[in-house]
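dumping these here so i dont lose them again. two proteins, back to back, each one seq then C-alpha cells. dont judge the mess
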Amino acid sequence: MQMEITQSAITQNAIEVGNRIAVKELKPEFIHLVTNNQGIIHKVCNLYCDAADEREDLFQEILLQLWKGYKAFKGDAKPTTWMYRVALNTAISSFRKRKRRPMGQGLSDYEFQIPSPVGDPDADEKRVFLYKAISKLSKVEKAIIMLYLEEHSYDEIAEIVGITRNHVGVKINRIKAKLKKTIEPYFS
C-alpha cells in the first residue's frame, strides 16, 4: 500500500523539522538560564510544597511551563523576573488544583535547619518561627514576602506578581504586621 503525499503533509513535516531546529538552537540557552537560576525554582517549590514528591512534581511543572514560554520570552524583563513570574504563577495554579491541606501543617523541621551565618542559636530559633509564620500566609503573600526578603525592589515585585508598586508597599506592610503579630508572643 502506497501512502499518498499531500501538500499539507509536506507542510506539516516542514513545520516539525523547523520546530526541531528551533528547539536545538534554544535548548542550550534555556539549559544555561535554568541551570544558573535554578535556585529561584527551588525556593518557590520549597515555599509552596511540604512533601519532597510534591516539590519534585512542582519543579518539573515549572520547568515545563518555562520551556513552553521560553520562545515567547522577549527580554522585556530580566530573565530572573520572568522566571519568578512563571514559577509563582505555576505554583499558585498548582496549589489551587490540589486539595487544601489542614491548617497548622507547615514545613518540616528538616527544612528549618538553615545554618545561621553567624552561628547564633537564637537567630536559628527566630528563623524557624519566621518560616512557620510565613507558611501560614496566603499564596500571594508568601510570594511577595519571599521576593521582599530576597531584597527585590518594589518595582520588581510588582512586575513579578502583577500588581502596582504602591499595592506592593501596602501588602508588605500588612504582611509584616501579620508576621509580627504571629511571632511576637514567642519572643516577649
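---- next one ----
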Amino acid sequence: MNAKDIFKITLNLVVIYVAGGLLLAALYATTSPIIFQANKKEKAEALQKMIPEADKIEKLGDWHPHEKHCEYYKAQKDGQVIGYIVQSVGKGYSSYIDLFFAVDKDMKVQKLEILHQGETPGLGDDVTTKWFKSQFSGKDMPHLKVLKTETTEYIQALTGATISSRAVTEDAVKNGLKFLQEKLNLSSGPNDKQPQFKEDHTKADNTKGGNADGSH
C-alpha cells in the first residue's frame, strides 16, 4: 500500500465521519423541538394534577436546592390565587429525590408527587407509595418532621428507610416550603390579602443536604 492509497482511505473516512456528523445534527435539529414540546406538555399535565381545580398555573421563578434547577408556581381560579406548587429536591440514601408539592394559601401541604428517585428497591423507593405520600396532606411547617414511631400528627418514617423519609419530608418539602414563605409577602396574613411574590432567579440558600443521622 503506497501513500496514494493511504490518502484515499483517509479521505473516505473523513467524508464518512463528516456526513455522519451532519446527519446526526440534522436529526437533532428535527427531533429536539418535538422532545421539548413533549416535555413541556408532560410538565403542564403534572402541574395541573397537583391542583386540579386551578384554571391557570403560572411560573413565578426558579431556585436551586442542592444546585439542581427547580421552579415554583402559583395556581389561580377565576383570577384568585388558590395555592402554590413548588418543585424541590432532597438528598436521599442513594439518589436525589425530585418532587412536586402543592400548598394552599394557608401554607398547608395539599398534595405530594415524586417525579424522580433512585432509592433502594423495597425500602427507600417506598416514598412513592400512596400511604407515605398521603401523610403530607394538611401538614404545615411545624409538622413536617419525621418520627420513627407511629404518628398521625407528624410524618411516620418508612421502615428501614429513615434517610429517604427525611430527604422527602425535611430536606425537600420543609426546605421548599420555607423558601416559598420567604418569597411571599405575608405581613398582613394570607387571609387578609393575596400574597405577592418577589421574582427571583438566583440560587437559594437552602441547599443543605437531608439529615444523614437516620438508619437505612
